[in-house]
């Protein structure tokens, strides 16, 4: 049932350059292109009755009875497999990203198997959670309640943020779960494995379902002599982890702290980490767009052998379909605190756009349609990425210039808009922010068209199919 494999990055408010909490994730798919969109879900649009498309799990109306909040969503636009809301920020500036595909082991699956029928999954979690929570901790508790009541058919990790806290939750088997608060001065990188390691039942900053500690003891699941390491107890440590998951975390750790060291295949890289500097939006943009630059493992690089370049799975790849950074700012008025940085398509060839979430609509170019349409930024980015991949040495610099230009222009529009918000609230504030989002979307769309034109111009004489009497 699972079609997405991702890379999550979480940063506490005291670890960021501007004091904001940030949670980010690339939403990756498989061989089939999965068009993603950007939508605003108002209370009137929120389902009052809900049934999962994949599992046909029906949700009791009592669990949807609370008046929903407005929220942003980044869904699969076809709707064929459900909503798959992916990420958003609600009207109380609470952010949620769901989900990160993670691993498990046969021991827990033999005790509490994933559901073969019914249950919730990635298609459901944002829609059933984000409009009903008023803090990051609320998000953890609601997901825990839903998992215990309805169960799940897949292993997932998800994150929540508000002004003060960042929490990360992982599902365990069919009905159990664990969650940990990220320290304010720390960051986390979570690839497609069970990530939470050190865990303390009953201690502040750690939560789990009430039955989990006894389950670990009853079935002798803990291989360690002291303490609880949830990755050791419930996770995997496989060859696939060593080549598919661990190297992504290793690259991010060494980017945030060059003294981190280690090897790409290391299985016990820590969950909670500290950078050697404060982390910026641009830092997260870079690592979510990375492909092992300046190592022998870069598919576009000059250092490695052909075999080395295919050894490890990079963060950025052709299967990036949507990537977001959900930022809850602490140095601005509430009306502009929530910002959903968003980009579509392969991350090495696109640019993030900082969309305000206190709005009354989303830009049309980001409301993707399911068919190829160059008026939609998703499809335009797919085109530039596939062309850029044919000759990265030529097109990579063009893309880098495009990205720097786009980020600078978006920052400028954002700074100007932040200044104008003083004294505005309600519809006036929403109208201002909606117009700013449109301006940024239009600017990045125009820049992407310009990039495509520059790529065509530069690539004209690189064609294989050419013939000249002077050759």
UniProtKB/TrEMBL annotation:
InterPro entries per UniProt: C69_dipept_A-like, Peptidase_C69
Pfam family, one: Peptidase_C69
Organism for this UniProt entry: Lactobacillus kullabergensis
Protease listed as a keyword: yes
Keyword line: Dipeptidase, Hydrolase, Protease
Reaction(s) this enzyme catalyzes, per UniProt: an L-aminoacyl-L-amino acid + H2O = 2 an L-alpha-amino acid
EC number(s) stated in the UniProt entry for this protein: 3.4.-.-
Entry's transmembrane regions: none
Family of this protein: Belongs to the peptidase C69 family.
Name the record gives this protein: Dipeptidase
Lineage of source species: Bacteria, Bacillati, Bacillota, Bacilli, Lactobacillales
């Amino acid at each position: 049932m699972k079609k997405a494999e991702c890379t999550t990055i979480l940063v506490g408010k005291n670890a960021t350059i501007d004091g904001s909490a940030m949670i980010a994730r690339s939403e990756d798919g498989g061989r089939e292109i999965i068009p993603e969109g950007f939508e605003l879900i108002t209370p009137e649009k929120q389902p009052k009755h809900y049934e999962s498309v994949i599992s046909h799990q029906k949700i009791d109306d009592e669990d949807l009875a609370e008046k929903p909040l407005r929220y942003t969503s980044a869904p699969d636009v076809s709707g064929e497999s459900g909503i798959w809301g992916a990420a958003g920020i609600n009207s109380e500036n609470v952010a949620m990203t769901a989900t990160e595909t993670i691993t498990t082991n046969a021991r827990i699956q033999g005790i509490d198997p994933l559901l073969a029928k019914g249950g919730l999954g990635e298609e459901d979690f944002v829609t059933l959670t984000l409009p009903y929570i008023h803090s990051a901790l609320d998000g953890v508790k609601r997901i825990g309640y839903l998992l215990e009541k309805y169960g799940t058919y897949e292993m997932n990790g998800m994150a929540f943020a508000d002004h003060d806290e960042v929490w990360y939750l992982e599902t365990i088997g069919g009905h159990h779960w664990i969650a940990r608060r990220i320290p304010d001065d720390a960051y986390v990188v979570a690839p497609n494995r069970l990530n939470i390691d050190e865990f303390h039942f009953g201690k502040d900053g750690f939560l789990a379902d009430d039955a989990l500690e006894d389950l670990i003891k009853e079935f002798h699941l803990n291989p360690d002599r002291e303490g609880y390491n949830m990755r050791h107890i419930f996770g995997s440590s496989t060859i696939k982890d060593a080549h598919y998951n661990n190297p992504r975390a290793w690259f991010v750790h060494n980017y945030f702290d060059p003294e981190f060291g280690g090897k790409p295949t290391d299985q016990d890289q820590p969950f909670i980490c500290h950078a050697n500097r404060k982390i910026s939006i641009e830092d997260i943009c870079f690592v979510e767009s990375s492909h092992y630059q300046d190592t022998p493992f870069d598919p576009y690089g000059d250092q490695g052998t052909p075999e080395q370049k295919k050894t490890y799975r990079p963060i950025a790849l052709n299967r990036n379909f949507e990537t977001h950074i959900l930022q809850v700012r602490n140095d601005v008025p509430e009306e502009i605190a929530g910002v959903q940085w968003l980009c579509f398509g392969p991350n090495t060839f696109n640019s993030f756009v900082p969309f305000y979430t206190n709005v009354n609509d989303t830009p049309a170019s980001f409301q993707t349609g399911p068919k190829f349409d160059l008026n939609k930024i998703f499809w335009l980015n797919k085109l530039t990425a596939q062309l850029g991949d044919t000759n990265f040495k030529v097109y990579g610099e063009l893309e880098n210039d495009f990205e720097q230009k786009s980020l600078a222009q978006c920052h400028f529009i954002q700074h100007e808009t932040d200044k104008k918000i003083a004294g505005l609230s309600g519809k006036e504030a929403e109208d201002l922010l909606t117009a700013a989002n449109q301006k940024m979307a239009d600017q990045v769309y125009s820049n992407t068209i310009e990039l495509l034109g520059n790529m065509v111009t530069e690539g004209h004489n690189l064609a294989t199919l050419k013939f000249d009497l002077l050759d």
